[in-house]
Design goal:
23% strand; Alpha-Beta Plaits; alpha+beta; 11 helices; SH3 type barrels; 3 domains; four-stranded antiparallel β-sheet
Length: 256
């Protein structure tokens, strides 16, 4: 167990994963030792020992199937890398900034600054949205030009920044959320309010926020609101304030 503990520590395995694996190993060693002792003393028939061992192993496997599923899923998440620490992601119905990735769980910092532990098995089974994008590629697709306004701090730093941008581009976070507008509201007044708020907030984000038509439903219209920030923590801060102000359209639009 000491050797296993040292090996897991060097591999960077989380405490939860180490505890689960060590417990399974202890039970396995106990089962093997018990079977060997019983077979050596000839107190129980060997066939019964084999049958009991199979039943014991099956019971242990069922008991730890969920933990094993999380660990296997954790290897997949670490290998496939659908996101990394510092990204703003949405996993199923949970979203936030990724603060830690272990073999068992992915920890998300949410808008109220609580930490949600998402099992890695849920990460694999759920739809995952990563809001990180390359701003230069995005601007090219939109037919715009993006200029990195980062302050230069010497030739060496500028050279390193240039190499990094060449390899990964300038990475930012393009966040979006939906706003449902009931058909009883004057859509023209709602659109005018959205334009006013986006104009007001354009200097707070990398680009002016956009309100895009998404779909028309039975009870009204669904819009998708989009804004871009450099730091994912801005989504939890000023992004939350912007979302709140956008959602107050009902106080600016008169019912028809």
């Amino acid at each position: 167990m000491r050797t296993v503990t040292i090996s897991f520590r060097k591999a960077g395995m989380s405490a939860e994963a180490k505890s689960s694996v060590k417990l399974m190993l202890r039970l396995l060693f106990l089962g093997v030792a018990l079977s060997w002792i019983l077979s050596a003393t000839a107190l129980i028939d060997s066939t019964a020992i084999i049958t009991s061992g199979a039943l014991f192993g099956t019971a242990i496997g069922l008991a730890f199937s969920k933990a094993l599923s999380n660990i296997v899923s954790g290897f997949y998440v670490l290998g496939a890398r659908p996101f990394r620490v510092g990204d703003y992601v949405k996993i199923g119905d949970v979203e936030g900034v990724v603060s830690e990735i272990t073999l068992n769980y992915t920890r998300l910092l949410q808008s109220d600054f609580t930490r949600e532990f998402v099992p890695n098995s849920k990460v694999v089974d759920s739809q995952v949205t990563n809001y990180r994008i390359r701003i230069d590629d995005y601007m090219v697709m939109r037919g715009k030009e993006y200029t990195n306004d980062a302050r230069k701090s010497g030739r060496v730093r500028s050279a390193f920044d240039g190499l990094r941008n060449l390899a990964t581009g300038t990475e930012v976070f393009r966040y979006s959320f939906e706003v449902n507008v009931n058909k009883d509201y004057d859509i023209a007044l709602v659109d005018a309010y959205f334009d006013e708020i986006c104009e007001k907030w354009k200097d707070e984000f990398i680009d002016k926020p956009e309100v895009l038509f998404s779909s028309e439903v039975m009870f009204g219209v669904v819009y998708k609101v989009v804004y871009i920030v450099k730091d994912p923590m801005d989504i939890l801060g000023k992004g939350s304030d912007f979302t709140h102000e956008i959602s107050r359209f009902q106080f600016a639009a008169k019912a028809s």
